[in-house]
Write a structure and sequence with these properties.
Elements lengths: L1 H18 L8 E3 L5 E3 L3 E8 L2 E6 L3 E5 L13 E4 L5 E3 L3 E5 L10 E2 L4 E5 L2
Antiparallel strand pairs: 1-10, 2-7, 3-4, 4-5, 5-10, 6-8, 8-9
Length: 121
């Protein structure tokens, strides 16, 4: 009986967490993808899921990217460790993740192109 109650509570918690998420790109339109973005005015990164990483630019624009191919270690709440060369972040630049409570980073993954999303006027 106790196991069934715990399972029900866990299922309800997962359902509530999923229902509380909103689409950060809702009300925005995608622009043409670019190879590199300037890091000076960016906030982030925010890992949305295993294929989506967002960078916010001064509240105006959101840049969407993700890994080239599979990156099994990419999960929300993880910390992204990015290898930056110069003041830009570019396609094929490498990154790793560190899971909450861990100290050893994952293997390397690479960024794909960066797509700008602007608010619909």
């Amino acid at each position: 009986m106790r196991g069934a109650v715990l399972a029900a509570v866990a299922l309800l918690t997962v359902a509530m967490l999923g229902a509380g998420k909103s689409d950060p790109l809702a009300g925005r339109v995608a622009g043409a993808p670019v190879r590199c973005i300037d890091l000076q005015q960016l906030n982030g990164p925010e890992i949305v899921d295993s294929q989506t990483i967002l960078y916010r630019q001064s509240g105006k624009q959101i840049w969407k990217t993700g890994p080239v191919g599979e990156c099994p270690s990419l999960r929300p709440l993880d910390t992204l460790i990015v290898d930056v060369y110069g003041g830009q972040l570019c396609r094929n630049d490498r990154f790793r993740t560190v899971s909450v409570g861990m100290s050893i980073p994952s293997g390397y993954c690479r960024f794909r192109d960066f797509t700008p999303y602007d608010k619909v006027k």
